[in-house]
Structures are given as C-alpha cells and as structure tokens.
Amino acid sequence: MPSVQDLHLQAQEQMRAGALGQALPLLEAAIAADPNYVPGLLDLATLYQSAGAIGKAGDCYRQCSALEPDNGYYRELFTQCLTEQWMGAALGRRIGRESAKTYAAKQYSGFFRTYLSGAHVLDIGYRGGFGETEPIVPQAVGVDFGYPGYDGIRLPFESGSQDAVYSSHCLEHMHNAHEALPEWLRVLRTGGYMVITVPHQYLYERKANLPSKHPGHIRFFTP
Hints:
The protein is α/β, with parallel strands linked by helices. Helices cover 48% and strands 11% of the residues.
C-alpha cells in the first residue's frame, strides 16, 4: 500500500497536469491515513476551494491551524475561507478571497459606485489561484490565466477601452509586474480608474527583505 507521502506526490503530479479530479481521491486517501499530515491538508484545501467546496476547505485549514497554532499563515487561510463562505451566502456570488475581505466596506462606503460602476471594468487576477471565483462587480470581465488572448502580460483589449482596471493581491505574485503595469494603463481610458491592492511591506510582511512569510509573494511594496 502506498505511503501517505507517496499518495501526496502522486496527487501533486496530477495537480501539475491539471487533472484535479484524479488528484482529489489521492489526497483524500492520504489524509484518511494520516489526518495530521499538514502538507497534504493544504493541497486538499486548495482542491476543495477550486471545486467550490468551501466548507471542506475550511475544515482542512482549521486542522492545519490547530496542528501548528503558531503559524499565522494557516490562521489567515482559515479566516479567509470563512469570509468566502459568508460572502457567498450574502451575495449569491463567489468573490475572490482577497477582494471578499473588504467587499462590505467598499459597498457601504460608495467605493463601487464611485470607481467601479462603469460598463467596462477588468478584474485582473480575480481567481487568486482558487478555482471559479467571480469578478469584483457583476459587469466586470475577469482576466486570469486561461482567458483567451491573455499571456500574463498582454491584454486582448483595445487601448483606452476600459472605465476601470481592478486588481487585488496579484502584483506581489508576478515576476513581470513592471511589464504588466504599462499594459494595464494602456487599456484604461483617459479619466478612468486604476485600483490596485497589494500587501504593505511594513504592515503585512513586517520585514526588510525577501523571502516573504507568504509562500507565493515574490516582491514587497511600500506606498
């Protein structure tokens, strides 16, 4: 019988190949054999979120946090999962995990009405790596890997065609941010709005140099 680690490695191979349906039972078998196997729990949570099974994903993150209570990243993942559940119940839409954190504040402050009410809005990086989430506002076009004509830099939209470009917690994951930003500006009309959210180096990262405490962050930002 394969070991827990072997099952996890097989699942990761399937995930890299995009065969999430084949990876899921392998990870479930690994965790059934060892419910305290944190690396497998994290990957299993990712698969559950991709499939929209937010409650199951939350259970995995809660288990990780209980096993390693000093790891703030696991607590953050669990909290974000709870937020995503609440937003889905309240809106009937599955907003990206980072955007969901401040969605209510943006709604009640008039932020959406002021900046994202135009007919032509792009939400770049809206999935955040977690499956079939929806753009920040209903009329926005969600652009992420897999969108026709998008290669991670070039946007398949005419210059000056967009009322707003929105991106939440995307740039800190991008190696080519300096190439992407001029492209985002290119498609924005004169007088349009560019809304970008990134983690603050001294408020979130709280360190001077890389690597980040978040495994996916490859750059820091200050005002």
